[in-house]
Amino acid sequence: MSIEEGSETIRRASASEVCRIVVGISGASAPVYGIRTLELLGRIEGLETHLVCSHAAETTIKLETGRSLREVHDLADIVHQPDDFAAAISSGSFSTKGMIVAPCSMSTLAGISVGLTKDLLTRTADVTLKERRPLVLMVRESPLHLGHLRNMVRVTEMGGVIAPPIPSFYHKPANLDEMIDYSLGRALDVFGLDMPWMNRWTGPGKD
After folding, report:
1. Could you list the residue range(s) of the whole structural domain that residue 41 is in?
2. Terminal CA-to-CA distance of the chain, rounded, Å?
3. Most buried of the four, 33, 38, 98, 141, by CB within 10 Å?
């Protein structure tokens, strides 16, 4: 993009040329999904990851993974604080390919479903929806009551994608890591990314 200023031409790279994905980690159980998302996205050249964790996420990260919040932050290109409503990702003018919340708690889902932006995570999800960009919520709860289901329907009606981390067995996973990666691969498919590690079904008896 060029901008004319008198006889001088200033050339700048368009912000839309930068490929960005926002990763949100809520306080739901299984923050490993968000952590692994950052690790997998880090393999993709030219992709910039923006991370925002809820306040509750720090507790589940520590309890379930033994990692510190700082260690998780180090996996992202850019980290935003949960109370920073002035962050770039809070604005629709900031170009991204979309957002994934992994895992997504029922509280976070409820906030998104009614447009209640209580923190930067829910604000960014709201922005993603209003800009008609992909929003993927890896919801974590079982069993589900009617309120949970209705919130999922509302988000789906607004254009979001509900993608619970349901394990698959037809590709014969050898361990838990492979099960996690497969669920994440299916969720990240929404963004149209090239994921060579993804073990895809090609038919019976085929690799």
Report:
1. 19-191
2. 45
3. 33
- Least Cα distance to 190 among 153, 149, 135 occurs for 135
Does residue 205 sit within a domain? Answer: no
pLDDT in tens, 13-56: 344 467 999 999 999 999 999 999 999 999 999 999 999 999 99
Please give the tally of structural domains in the chain: 1
Q: Which long-range contacts (CB under 8 A, 24 or more apart) does 201-207 make?
A: 201/170, 201/171
161-193 per-position pLDDT tens digit: 999 999 889 888 999 999 999 999 999 999 998
CATH label of the domain that carries residue 114: 3.40.50.1950
Nearest one of 85, 94, 86, 105 to 29, comparing CA atoms: 105
Q: Give, in degrees to the nearest 5, the angle at Cα 38 between 189 and 105.
A: 80
pLDDT tens string 111-128? 999 999 999 999 999 999
71 assigned to some structural domain: yes
